[in-house]
Amino acid sequence: MKYKCGVCGFVYDEEKENKAWGELPEGWACPICGVGKDMFAPVPEAAEAPAEKVAAAAEPVPAGTAEAKRTASDLIAETLRNFGVRRVFGMVGHSNLGMADAIRRCAERGEMEFVSIRHEGAAAFAAAAYGKLTGMPAACLTIAGPGATNLLTGLADAALDRAPAIALTGQVPSRELGRNAFQEIDLVRALGAAASLQQTATASSDFAAVAARAARHAILTRSVAQIVLPDDVQNVPVAPDAPAGTPAGEIFNGTATRASDAALAEAVALISRAKRPFVVVGEGCRHAVAEALAFAEAVNAAVATTYRAKGFVSDAFPLACGVVGRSGTLVSAKMMAESDCVVGLGVSFSNHSEIAKGKPTVQIDRDPAALGRLRKIDCGVLGELSETLPELTRLLRGNVAAEDPRERVAALWAEWRAEKCRRAERSAPGKIAPAAVCAALSECVPENAVVSVDVGNVAYAFGRYFEAKNQRALLSFYLGSIGVGLPAAIGAWCATRDNAALGRRPVVAVVGDGGLGQYLAEWTTVVRCGMDVKCVVFNNSELAKISLEQRNARVSVWETRLHNPNLAEFAKLCGSAGVRVSDPATLREDLARAFATPGPVLVEVLTDPDAA
Question: From CA 495, how far away is CA 342, in angstroms rounded?
Fold first, then answer.
């Protein structure tokens, strides 16, 4: 027999609860709304509507009971697992319980891991960072309404930076859709700015196919896929032997293409005449860095990177100039200004990179849509960089007019390092210059670390002053969203544990106090999960980048001051180590000690908001 609550609609099923209604104590209350037994009425079996039958059949069964059946959510979770999804970031709640339970079952079998976060926005940023590092999607799990809408900024970051991600958004029950029910929002419209594939599951969906389409789309197009999961649909029973989707027979890594002979000949003609060629390495060159450096050596070209590619080329490489653009070095700025030909390798020519205009420009990319998209170019070469660059190097070796720029590059590095020292020496107690912090970080950050950088002055300082070895930088590059630093570090830590190619690299977050404040509670996630993340906070008690913008716009500096807690003490309250640095004389020693400390450590450095 079943009894239905007249207030919230909860159905008490004697068979599933294994206790007769009459055996319940008089003080028993509805587990949903809290009313007493007197508000329940018997539900005659014959009177149940079809929709109610589906909902009743779909009610979740307590974990570990013999009656547990496979559901639509199991097929979705198992299919995502088969397509390589290993991590899910999110928050369990009332409208995703069926999907959450399926993920739990996968996790208990060692097939997935779930990271419970404090805010869904952090889940999306973590998934975006995971995709940027691995090229494979992680998933986000949320409830309906506000849980799902909290994903938008992080998913937009993934979309603009072309990182694969999958959003699993709970939704109100199917029978309530269109009635303005509690937490009902059109989630397709709500997340449509970020998700390029959106599917809403129904009771009659081919659930394995829905999940397979989402995974395939995210991987192949490096974009965001969303599955909307009404509460009742998550628990639709499926056959015990219903097969999950698999990627068998599919190809996900594209087809390597060699550039045409005509395009190569045109590029050779431009580059061979150049006296001072300048190579810019971008994110699209990630899998062809060795080929790019061999090409630069063959044509006597100085080499810079975009911010997205910071760390692809060690600043110790004799031809390296550091980062170009607004966050770049004096070395790259001067070498680019003196150049007479620019060769872009997997770059987009974004405004932030400020790659010189008015010079003969060659762009090489695997994506035809990238060629000339943001900049008029003189020669576009379509081809896989790993295939095209060796052939271009062969054609140009011994056939160039350029002279070796190493001496000029070395002289400019000496000039730039002297200037960085002058800026670092302007530090005072409680007002340490960002140049000094980055100089210490250049010595202390492990050379194979993944460094997640937040948006703001801290990003400019890190781009300019930090001398990269083989670190990998993460940022909200095209969306430029403040707050990304710590959540992206969580995603990076998971990626380095799941992806063998990343080899359990150490993870460092370099953030400002403004950015950290947006997701400060996620430090408890880091501690709870035992993530060995080192978080360095530039604390200047100000949104200093905004203050600078106000000054440059000749308006009053207004509402940019921040009231911060002692962040090192906060970290200790969370259960991790916390270090506060106010004396520039002990900065290097304090940072070295923090990086040598096992487990998560938050280092709060009191910095000068007015220092460049």
Answer: 34
Instruction: Classify residue 220 as exposed, middle or buried by CB count within 10 Å of its CB (0-12, 13-18, 19+).
Output: middle
Quick one: tokens of 57? 């059949």
Q: Tell me whether residue 368 is exposed, middle or buried, using C-beta atoms within 10 angstroms of its C-beta: 0 to 12, 13 to 18, 19 or more.
A: exposed
Instruction: Yes or no: say if 152 and 146 are a contact pair by the CB < 8 Å rule.
Output: no
Q: What is the rounded distance in angstroms from the CA atom of residue 225 to the CA atom of residue 214?
A: 5
H/E segment holding residue 578: strand 577-581
Type of residue at 103:
I
pLDDT at 68: 61
128 Rama sector, left if φ>0, alpha if ψ -120 to 50, beta otherwise: alpha
State the helix-helix crossing angle for 97-108 and 72-82, rounded to 10 degrees: 50
Q: CA separation (Å) from 59 to 171, 233, 441?
A: 15, 10, 53
Compute CA 328 distance to the chain's CA centroid, rounded to the nearest angstrom.
22
Mean pLDDT in consecutive groups of 10 residues from the start of the chain, 612 residues: 89 91 92 90 65 37 54 98 98 97 98 98 98 97 97 98 98 91 94 98 97 97 97 96 89 68 96 97 96 98 97 97 95 97 94 88 92 90 95 95 96 98 97 98 97 97 96 96 98 96 95 98 98 98 95 96 98 98 98 98 97 83
CA 426 to CA 433: how far, in whole Å? Answer: 6
Please give the pLDDT value at position 47. Answer: 45
CATH 3.40.50.970 positions along the chain are: 72-235, 425-606
Contact 396, 272 (CB under 8 A): yes
DSSP state letters, 287-348: GGHHHHHHHHHHHT-EEEE-GGGBTTB-TTSTTEEEE-STT--HHHHHHHHH-SEEEEES--
Cβ–Cβ under 8 Å, residues 122 and 154? yes
Q: List CB contacts of 436: < 8 A, sequence separation 6 or more.
A: 423, 424, 425, 427, 584, 587
Name the residue type at position 93.
G
* 261-408 classified as CATH 3.40.50.1220: yes
Q: Using the structure block, give the residue that is written with the tokens 């009404």.
A: 230
Beta bridge partners of 508: 451, 534
Pick the CATH number of 425-606 from 3.30.499.10, 3.40.50.970, 3.30.360.10, 3.90.1150.30: 3.40.50.970
385-396 and 289-299 helices, crossing angle to 10°:
20
- Cα separation, 136 vs 283, in Å, equals 16
CATH class assigned to 2-48: mainly beta
| pLDDT given at position 69 | 87
pTM: 0.90
Which CATH number describes the domain made up of 72-235?
A: 3.40.50.970
